[in-house]
Specification:
The protein is built from seven helices and six strands, in the order ββαββαβαααααβ. The protein is an alpha+beta fold. Strands 2-1-3-4 form a four-stranded antiparallel β-sheet, with helices on one face. Strands 5-6 form a two-stranded parallel sheet.
Length: 194
């Protein structure tokens, strides 16, 4: 069976007015199913760049993928090089098969949509379901991530929640489609949602 994720010889540079910055050089990572892996390093060592590169969330330019491949195998039988997928090809993967919990929930949540509608949107985009079922699944996830009064949180906007509550909404959004791979770019996030 193939690993869930393999990053082979990945190198990424950033082109700026000041010149070229080598952000990643020859990175190799393998993540198997059921495995928890941590990238540890000082600030600026490339942890977030590595995470964002998996979902092609680095703006290009200035990001330049110099070499390497990011191979994802959802079924364990075939691999897809994520760096060869266009944005439409990534749409089915992002949030559905691979999800990410970002460091800063306030910049990741849409301030003009309620928290419930944002999670519902992910469910409706990736799962064959109707609005009533998506709404109930959203409330169920709000319960699983231990948000107080999930029905009320569903109708609140991000600015009406505490920082910790916004982080839990982000976790619910990342988990609601039950991805094969969950990337956590937030080192303090640890919830039991089983």
């Amino acid at each position: 069976m193939l690993p869930l994720l393999r990053i082979n010889h990945l190198s990424i540079d950033f082109s700026t007015d000041a010149g070229i910055t080598h952000a990643l050089k020859d990175i190799n990572i393998t993540v198997n199913r059921g495995e928890i892996m941590a990238l540890v390093g000082e600030s600026g060592s490339g942890k977030s760049v590595t995470s964002l590169s998996i979902l092609q969330l680095l703006p290009s330019p200035p990001a330049i993928y110099c070499s390497g491949e990011i191979l994802f195998s959802d079924d364990g039988q075939t691999e897809t090089n994520l760096l060869q997928r266009d944005r439409y090809g990534m749409q089915d993967i992002r949030g559905n098969k691979i999800a990410m919990i970002f460091q800063e929930p306030m910049t990741s949540l849409n301030p003009v949509l309620t928290c419930g509608n944002q999670v519902m949107e992910a469910i409706l985009l990736h799962k064959k379901t109707n609005k009533a079922e998506a709404r109930q699944r959203t409330i169920d996830w709000f319960t699983r991530v231990k948000l107080p009064d999930p029905e009320s949180i569903f109708h609140r906007y991000p600015h009406q929640l505490s920082g910790g509550q916004k982080q839990r909404v982000m976790i619910a959004m990342a988990m609601c489609c039950e991805p094969s791979l969950l990337i956590c770019d937030e080192p303090t996030t640890a919830l039991d949602v089983t």
